[in-house]
Amino acid sequence: MAVACVSDRGRTVSLLGLDIGVTGAKAVAFDLDGRVVASAYREYPLLSPQPGWQESDPNHVWQCVKEILAETAAATSADPIQALAVSSQGEACHPVGHDGASLANTLSPFDARTAGYVDWWLERKTKFEITQITGMPLHGMYTINKILWFKEHRPDIYAKTWKFLCYEDFIHHKLGLDPVMSHPMAARTMAFDIRSGDWSDELLGLAGIDPALLPKNAPSGSVVGTISNAVADDLGLPHGVVVATGGHDQPAAALGAGVLESDEAIYSTGTTECICACFDTYSLTEEAVEGNVCCYPSCVPGLYVSLGFNFTGGALLKWYRDNFGGLEKLESERTGVDVYEIICRDIPEKPESLVLLPHFSMAGTPYFDNASRGAILGLTLNTPREALVSAILSGVTYEMKLNLALLQSVGVSIGRLRATGGGAKNAVWIQRKADIMGVPIAVLHTSEAASLGAAMLGGKASGVVDDLREMARRVVKIERVVEPDTVRSEAYNKRFAIYRDLYPTLKKLNHRLAELEGSGR
C-alpha cells in the first residue's frame, strides 16, 4: 500500500503496504491523502494433509508476493515506491534453514495439531501468569506451540532450523534483509514479554527453545533496512526502497481505519472475523483472562489492542463458493461482477429461520474450543439456496455479537464499529451486521485498512510521515454510516437468543465427532 509524497525531483513517490492473509496476499498503494494508487491480489490455498491440520506453502505464498509486488510497482512507475511494510496474519510460522530455504510448510493460525500444549503449559504456569507476561490467553494456536510441535515431532527439521519465521519477518528475509518481527506480531507468538518489550526468557526457558531461533523484534514503524539493487531489479521494484516493521493485521487495520481511542473498534471481515478495540492502558483482569481476552501492543506507540474473533469468517462464503457456487462463478466470469456480490444478491431481507454455528475452523473467543464444529439447524426440503447463504452471513455475525458483549463486559467501551477487510465491500452483509450487532457501522473510503496502516508505518520509517495519529485523522474518511434497522434488529435478537444456546447444546456431540475424526474410524 502506498502513501505518496513529493520528492526533491518534483515527482510523487509512494509507499507500499503488503497484507499477508491466511488465503491471499494483497499489495495496495496509497497517496499521501489516502487514495489508492494501485493494488494487486493473489489467492493461495490452505492445505490439509491430515484432519485438523491446516498449512500453507511458504514458497507459493512468496511467489504470489513477488507477483503482486511486480504488478503494483509497474502500476506506480510514475509514483515510485519509496518504502514498504507488512501487515500479517498472526501466529503462523515455519522453519527456515541456514541456507535460507523453507524447511516445511507454514502451520496456519488455526492448525489444530498443537492443541495439547495447553495442558503442557498448565503443568508449569497458571493461565493468568502466562497472560500477564504475554498478553495472550493460553491457546494452542500461538507460535511458541508450533515451535514446540516441530521440536517434539520433527526433531530432524528442528535441528536444521536457523529461524522460525512468521510471515512479516519471512518477507523481510526473502527481500534480502535480516528478519525483524514487529512488537504486535511478536506478541502473537506467546513468547514475548509485554512488560519488558522483548522475548520472554522465562517462557522460552520453560519450553527449552533457544531465543536465537526467533528473529529480532522492534516496535512498528522501525527501519528494517533498504532493499538491495539486485533484489529490487529481480522484483521489478525501484532502487532504494526502505522496509519497515509493520504489524499484526488487526492492529495495523485499526491504525488504517483511524481507530485511535476507545468507544470505537474495527470490525474486520476477511478469512476470519475480528473486532479490534484500542486503549492506552495495559490491563488484564482475571475476568478478562477467563473470557480469553488478549491485550498487546498496537502499531501506534502508547496504544494497546484487544480482540474478539472467530477463525471462520469470510472463509465460509469461500467454502460456499468453492463447493456450491459453480453457477455463480460462471456468471462472475461472464459478467465481471464479483462472485460474492452474485452469491449474496438474492438473499431475503427478512431474517431466515436457519441457525448456523460458524465453527468450521474450531472456535475462537470466547470459547477457544478446538473440538467444536460447524452446524446448520432448521433445514427442510423447502430450504432454498438463498436461505443457506443468508444463514452464513447471520451465523458469522451472531458469533461476533457474542464477542462484542464479551469485550464490553470487561470494560471496553464500543459505541460504533468501523468496517474493514474484504467483507466491508458487501453492502448486504454490512447492513446485516448493523442489524444484528445493534450498533452503527461506519464504512470507510477504503476497506483495505490493514494495508493503509502498513503504508503509514512504512512512511514513518522512511521519514515521509512524521505523526501516525495526525495522518490517520487526516486521511481516514468515512464514506457512510449504516444504522441498524430497529424492526429487523428485534427479529434478529429473537434468533440470537436461540443462537446463544447452540454451542453449549452441541458441545458434547461435537466433541464426540471430533474424537471420531481423530481416530480415523
Structural category:
alpha+beta
Uncertain regions spanning at least 5 consecutive residues: 1-10
Q: Helix share of residues?
A: 40-55%
The number of helical elements comes to: 19
For the terminal residues, how far apart are their CA atoms? 48 Å
Task: Count all strands and give the number.
Answer: 24
Radius of gyration: 22 Å
Name the beta content range.
15-25%
| Average residue-wise pLDDT | 91
Largest sheet: 7 strands, mixed
Short description:
The longest helix has 34 residues, at 486-519. The strands form seven sheets. Strands 1, 2, 3, 4, 6, 14 and 15 form a seven-stranded mixed β-sheet that branches. Strands 18-19-17-16-22-23-24 form a seven-stranded mixed β-sheet, with helices on both faces. Strands 5-8 form a two-stranded antiparallel ribbon.
